[in-house]
Write a structure and sequence with these properties.
The structure is a single chain. The protein is of the alpha+beta class. Helices cover 53% and strands 13% of the residues. The protein has a 3-stranded antiparallel sheet with strand order 1-3-2. The protein is globular and about 55 Å long. The two termini are 23 Å apart.
């Protein structure tokens, strides 16, 4: 099997695309959050928290802030009472979906 350029040995791990990807999606819930938002297209905080139970409010909030800061999701806040906030994938987040599909395919093959 021919080694892909991004997987070849390099001088420093922190200069690899692999490391950058891990920095964006690393953490216990980030991949799951991206998956959930992709499945729902647009989702509110409480619905996301119920879907990902038993994730805590604090953990979900922190992960969403990081994903938004990294440009993988968008947060839309509506000026109303009570506050309404919706999350969806950004274009950058949507470009990650083929990676989720590849992970899904690999996992299904391992279950056989």
């Amino acid at each position: 099997m021919k080694e892909k350029d991004c997987l070849k040995e390099v001088e420093s791990f922190d200069k690899t695309g692999f490391n950058h990807t891990l920095a964006l999606i690393g953490g216990k819930y980030k991949l799951t959050i991206l998956y959930a938002i992709y499945r729902h297209k647009i989702i509110r905080f409480n619905s996301l928290q119920r879907y990902l139970a038993p994730i805590s409010h604090k953990t979900l909030s922190a992960a969403l802030k990081e994903l938004e800061a990294d440009g993988l999701i968008t947060r839309k806040e509506y000026p109303q009472i009570p506050p309404k906030v919706e999350y969806s994938l950004s274009d950058k987040g949507k470009s990650f979906i083929p990676v989720l599909y590849a992970m899904c395919d690999w996992g299904e093959k391992q279950m056989e």
